[in-house]
UniProtKB/TrEMBL annotation:
Keyword Disulfide bond: no
Lineage: superkingdom: Bacteria
Keyword Thylakoid attributed: no
Assigned keywords, A-Z: Membrane, Transmembrane, Transmembrane helix
Bilayer-spanning residue ranges: 33-58, 79-100, 112-131, 138-160, 180-204, 216-241, 261-285, 297-320, 326-343
UniProt cross-references to InterPro entries, sorted A to Z: YkvI-like (IPR038728)
Record PANTHER family: CONSERVED MEMBRANE PROTEIN (PTHR37814), MEMBRANE PROTEIN (PTHR37814:SF1)
Protein name as annotated: Membrane protein YkvI
Length: 357
């Protein structure tokens, strides 16, 4: 069970940076739908747990070192080529977004030039990725409980000090930019782009677990934890929607509602979230094009890190607004393939049981 919890925490830690870092993601995908956003969060929890369980299980059985083995296993070659391309592109794209986000955070909260913040994050992730994958998993998993604690504190404070009516919440929610026209589609889109973001790292993490059942439980735990975090952040946003509705980084605005000191602490927490995801994305992308641990792999880590730094100058907001929705729709191909694979596996198991009966 300990190994399952470790895997689940690491899975959640990889997703947290891309899905929670600024708070804009939760605001647009869930809070903008008012009370229906809570239903969306519950739906997202179950889908996260289901997909996480299956991807980790398959990764364990294949002892995968990149997402390629899993993708071609569940999708076949024609669709697998497409899904592989989408995931590989998104891995690098999210790393670039994380570098840009770090720059924005350094500039907005600490008054440090964005270029310095982005460069700091690039160097930190490159150094980490040059360690072995077990150390990466330990680093990612170790930070996750602290991130969860901060979110619980902010959610509790927001609910206890809320002075906004349900009618006002509904009105303000309608004024927010929504990621999709319907709350359920929005929830699925959110899961989709996050799964596209985390599938490769989850495959690698699942591949390090010998027992398939242990890996499956770990994936389910990680998905459940992500669902809880969605609900907590969403409720906190709703309770303080009058204060955070127009903020670029709503989670930071929530912390500022408590005190400037907590805002600084939260800024550091957000940097940890961004770091978690940037490490996972850079490692997974590089492992897809070169075998981990080789001299070529190390050279590519440096090359891709510098390339990502250059592309981060496009800007955090522009990158998020363009890349996430597109990848969410494209990522439905992967989710659909996992669901079909699961049904086939269940059907095969049922046939074996009937034949032996």
């Amino acid at each position: 069970m300990k190994e399952s919890i470790r895997l689940g925490a690491a899975f959640a830690g990889v997703v947290v940076g891309a899905g929670f870092a600024s708070g804009q993601e939760i605001l647009q995908f869930f809070t903008s739908f008012g009370l229906w956003g809570i239903a969306g969060g519950i739906a997202a929890m179950f889908v996260f747990a289901f997909i996480g369980m299956n991807l980790a299980s398959i990764g364990s059985s294949l002892k995968s070192k990149s997402h390629k083995e899993i993708i071609y296993k569940i999708c076949g070659k024609p669709i697998g080529l497409f899904v592989d391309a989408v995931i590989t592109f998104f891995l690098f794209g999210v790393a670039v977004i994380m570098y840009a986000g770090a720059g924005s955070l350094f500039e907005e909260q600490f008054g440090i030039p964005a270029v310095v913040g982005s460069l700091f994050m690039v160097v930190a992730t490159m150094v980490t990725v040059l360690l072995n994958v077990q150390k990466i998993i330990m680093l990612i998993g170790a930070v996750t409980p602290f991130l969860v604690a901060m979110i619980i504190i902010l959610a509790g404070y927001s609910v206890m000090t809320a002075d906004i009516s349900g009618t006002e919440i509904a009105r303000l929610a309608q004024e927010q930019d929504a990621a999709a026209p319907h709350w359920l589609l929005s929830a699925f889109l959110y899961v989709s782009f996050n799964i596209a973001c985390s599938a490769s790292m989850l495959a690698v993490m699942g591949g390090t677990v010998k027992d398939r059942k242990t890996a499956a439980i770990g994936g389910a735990i990680g998905g459940g934890l992500l669902g809880i975090l969605i609900l907590l952040v969403n409720i906190a946003m709703m309770a303080k929607l009058d204060a955070v509705g127009g903020a670029a980084m709503p989670t930071l605005a929530l912390a500022a509602e408590v005190s400037p000191i907590l805002a600084n602490i939260m800024a550091i927490v957000l940097l940890c979230m961004i770091y978690n995801t940037a490490v996972g994305m850079l490692y997974s992308f590089t492992a897809r094009v070169s075998e981990a641990g080789t001299a070529r792999f190390k050279a590519y880590v440096f090359l891709f890190g510098i390339g990502g730094f250059a592309l981060s100058f496009v800007g955090f907001v522009s990158l998020v607004g363009t890349l996430y929705p597109i990848t969410g729709y494209l990522g439905f191909a992967l989710i659909g393939a996992v669901v079909i694979y699961w049904f086939r596996k269940v059907a095969a198991g049922a046939r074996v049981s009937s034949e032996t009966a």
